Each structure stands twice: as structure tokens, then as C-alpha cells.
Amino acid sequence: MSNANSLDALIQALRRLPGVGVKSASRMAFHLLQHDREGALHLSQALRQATDSVRHCALCHTFTEAEVCVTCLDPQRDAAKLCVVETPADQSAVERTAAYKGRYFVLMGKLSPLDGIGPKDIGLQKLFDRATDGVVQEVILATNFTAEGEATAHVIGEALRSRGLQVTRLARGVPVGSELEYVDLGTIAHALVDRR
Ligand SMILES: [Zn+2]
């Protein structure tokens, strides 16, 4: 029975991945063991390597293998501006616009009371310490426009305004190239309220 136990353990381990149920986990395990043992070994080595070496940047909290990430070390960046995003993917999206040259803080999550994710889980104290270091002047809240992203922005905004910082939020607007007739009402309403 020891072979079956190893298989069960692999399936249980794969089920830890988000969105993977017992069916998908079984399919992945069978595939790896039946058709791609080399890939399975490669996967296990990559997992070991990443869990050993990847950590959080001491300044912006994003993933890095060094004490401080490349973006934080870049002297060309405006240290007076701090853009708060939920994930490294969101940070990349802001970077691709080439419209922002300040620094970042990556929450690596968002407040979600229903899932038991509170201020401690997303490193808010680290953000507050960073934002009040005397160098940062403006904090730009670029969390997502979902209920959780808005709630996260609200909590951070309140806390930092009470510490005397200038806090701004990404403007919500009508997508470039879209026709009003096809834009949802909530977006049009926000665009009207945030008009400038
Ligand atoms: Zn960093």
C-alpha cells in the first residue's frame, strides 16, 4: 500500500493550489507520474529552490531574492511618491503604462474579513512605517476597484491621512476607445463624480 500512499500524498499536496479540487489534482498527479517524470522532478526542484530563496523586499514587500528589490534600489525613482498595489502583477501593469516613476508598496493581498484576512496579514504596519519615513510625501492608492480593493484603500487612506500624509486614489473612468452607450452605469457615474 505504500505506493498508493505516496500517490495520495501527491494529490493532497496538489490540492493546496488555489482552484484545484480533488479531480484536477488527480489528473495532474497521474499526468506527471505516467507521462512526465522529468517534468515532475523539475517542478519539485523549482519549488524547493523558490521556497528557499524567494523572500519579501525589506522596503516594498514584493518578492525578491535580495534584501531589497531592484525597483527600490533604482536611484532614478521619485522617493516622495509611493504607489500601493495589491500584487506584483498589478505593479507590472502600472509599470507598463510608463506614466509613473515613483516607488511602490506591494500588499501581496487585500483586506478580506470574510476570508479572515486582516491588517496584519497584508503587512499594513510595514506600509505605515514606510509611508511615514519622512521621505514619502504622497501615497497613491492603486488597489483594485473591487469591494475588497476599495475597502483596503479606505482603511489605508484613513490611517495615512490621520498621520498627515497626502493620499490619492486612482481615478475611475470610462475606458479609452469605448463608447458611452456600451459602458456600464457604475463606471459612467464614477467618471461623472470624479470629473476634472
Ligand atoms: Zn522593493
Q: Could you characterize what this model shows?
A:
This protein is α/β, with parallel strands linked by helices. Helix content is 46%, strand content 13%. The protein is built from eight helices and six strands. A four-stranded parallel β-sheet has the order 4-3-5-6. A two-stranded antiparallel sheet has the order 1-2. β3, α5 and β4 form a beta-alpha-beta unit. α1 (2-14) crosses α2. The longest helix is centred in the N-terminal third of the chain and has 17 residues, at 37-53. The N and C termini lie far apart (70 Å). The mean pLDDT is 91. Bound molecules: zinc ion (ZN). Zinc ion binds at residues 57, 59-60, 62, 68-69, 71-72.
